[in-house]
């Protein structure tokens, strides 16, 4: 029977997973496959797994339980192996890589920071600060039929918004990045201009939380700064 693999841990991780059931329609018992130096946390699976809410929740619940006692190497949702022997083979073949990766994230968690600001706020600032943009906007609103004006204003505003988003992201990253051991930038989406993951040790986490509180308190320009964590260190697992 195939097995679903949740995470890899060191041999000394307690893996307190008693009573947990895993992904799949039948929710098989979560258990451990061990080698001399490593452990893999798995459960039996009889069907192809898709990211349904129940299964995603079960996957994350195992990660959260493991995080309570030390940092595992979390696998992305959906990883399966043919059987226990195949899992042991990979653990033995990749033991050095797994040990290096575990040392990298030891006693750490991932924290994700997203920052967003509505485009309308950027637009109002641009019209206030940029005389050319303000003139173009006034001419268009006054009824000018010159087709070049909207095109020029559109290009000017788009360039200015892009630059202002980049500057705001760099400003926040400059404060937050030094608070983590490592960082990873992810693509932004929607009004988000920053999507930053930090690998933060348990001892350093209070400083990050305090910095986040101060940034939220100081920002009076409509910027929304969301901090999520502690999380399994997905962004820092090769």
Provide a short characterization of the protein structure.
With 238 residues, the chain is an alpha+beta fold. It has helices at 53-67, 84-93, 95-105, 119-129, 131-141, 148-176, 205-218, and strands at residues 2-10, 31-34, 38-45, 73-74, 80-81, 108-116, 182-185, 192-201, 224-231. It contains 7 helices and 9 strands, in the order βββαββααβαααββαβ.
Q: How is this structure best described in words?
A:
By secondary structure, the chain is of the alpha+beta class. It has 7 helices and 9 strands. The strands form 2 sheets. Strands 1, 2, 3, 4 and 5 form a 5-stranded antiparallel β-sheet that branches. A 4-stranded antiparallel β-sheet has the order 7-8-6-9, with helices on one face. Helix 4 (119-129) crosses helix 6 (148-176) and helix 5 (131-141) crosses helix 6 (148-176). The longest helix has 29 residues, at 148-176.
